[in-house]
Structures are given as structure tokens and as C-alpha cells.
Specification:
Elements (H helix, E strand, L loop, with lengths): L5 E3 H4 L4 E2 L23 E3 H15 L3 E7 L4 H11 L6 H7 L5 H6 L14 E8 L28 H15 L3 E3 L6 E4 L15
Parallel strand pairs: 2-4
Antiparallel strand pairs: 1-3, 4-5, 5-7, 6-7
Length: 204
């Protein structure tokens, strides 16, 4: 498999909204993440087609997918690990994204990993938005909020927030994606088309 086996969701499926904040400073690290040279979302072709089918189902309900992250270069995963070992220097960001944990505890508690299925081109972080208003459905926590309330089945969210999470889950599962239970936004396509390969080319 090579870079040519990936597609840009921005280009092929322009109806899917792309957030891609790792290409900016608007993320939990407060820095542009290495490997993210453009505000794009790349994905392997097979799961990308499945994601398009999810989008079609969402559109039929007056909704739309918003992608936070898809393919993630290995260098970005290494950067997160290096970042976790640095002294805390931005208490404002800590309060927004991980108020209950130290940086290192994010790895110990399974919110971040030394190896990521994102680097295999088959995992996507996403949510649902109202197709007319463009507003995100209330999921009870923001993307990359590292806390137990972000667990998909967290009892800490309201009935409506849980309903929204389960709607996303049902749409994704109908097209071959499996949720990671500690993050309501995190889905991996199964079976993975390239389970033994990771990639490190830049997103540009």
C-alpha cells in the first residue's frame, strides 16, 4: 500500500465537513501537530467508501458528518508521546481538554496511545451536525475531552446526549465501523484493510 491508496475526503466527498484542528494550534497540544501540513482528512479508499455510505444515511436524516481526524502520520503519534513527557505549560488548554489528568495519565488511561490505528488509515474521529444549521449535535463533551464523560456509554450525559451518541454509533456500525468505548467520536473500520502497516507521509 502507498500514498496513492489514500484519498482526500475534502476532494472526493466535499459534502463531509472537515475540521482537522491538528493542522492548527486549536487542539489539546496548542501546537500544529507534525505531519499536518494542510487542513485535510486523508483516509484509505475502502473505509472512505464506507464513510461515504454513512454520510448518505446521515443526509437522509437531515444530518451531516464532521470529521475531526482520519489518517494520522506516525510522526504525529510520536509527537503526542513526546508532548506528554513535557512539563505542563498551558493550564488553560489543560482545563479545556484534560482537567482531571496529567499529560502522562492520558496514555495510562487509554485516551492516547503509543501506536494508533489512525496511522493505518482506517480510523476516523467524527461527529454529526445539523445539515441546515451546521451546528454539532450535543454529545455531552467536545472532541478530545479526555475524561470518563467521553466514554461512549457514560452515565454522566443526558438522555438526549446519549441518544445522539447512539445515533452516530448505529450509523457507523451499519457500515462496518466499530467504536472505541472510551471515546464516543472514535471509529475503526473492520476488517482493517491494512492491519499490519502504518504510514508516515505528511498530510498536504
Amino acid at each position: 500500500m502507498s500514498r496513492s491508496d489514500f484519498i482526500s475526503l475534502n476532494d472526493v466527498y466535499p459534502d463531509i465537513k472537515i475540521q482537522a484542528d491538528y493542522s492548527t494550534e486549536e487542539n489539546f497540544t496548542g501546537q500544529i501537530v507534525p505531519g499536518y501540513k494542510a487542513r485535510k482528512a486523508l483516509f484509505a479508499k475502502v473505509p472512505a467508501k464506507a464513510l461515504f455510505n454513512v454520510q448518505q444515511d446521515a443526509k437522509s436524516r437531515g444530518l451531516c458528518l464532521k470529521v475531526f481526524d482520519a489518517y494520522r502520520p506516525v510522526k504525529a503519534v510520536k509527537f503526542f508521546l513526546e508532548w506528554s513527557n513535557l512539563p505542563e505549560d498551558n493550564l488553560e488548554l489543560k482545563e479545556i481538554y484534560y482537567p482531571k489528568y496529567s499529560r502522562l495519565e492520558l496514555f495510562h488511561n487509554g485516551f492516547l496511545s503509543e501506536r494508533s490505528s489512525h496511522s493505518r488509515g482506517c480510523t476516523v474521529d467524527l461527529t454529526l451536525v445539523d445539515d441546515i444549521l451546521g451546528t454539532e449535535l450535543d454529545m455531552g463533551s467536545c472532541f478530545d475531552y479526555f475524561d470518563s464523560i467521553s466514554h461512549t456509554d457514560s452515565p454522566l450525559v443526558s438522555a438526549q446526549q446519549m441518544q445522539n451518541r447512539l445515533l452516530l454509533k448505529s450509523l457507523m456500525e451499519a457500515h462496518g465501523f466499530k467504536n472505541y468505548s472510551k471515546e464516543w467520536w472514535h471509529y475503526t473500520y473492520r476488517p482493517e484493510p491494512y492491519p499490519d502497516q502504518t504510514f508516515d507521509f505528511d498530510i498536504e
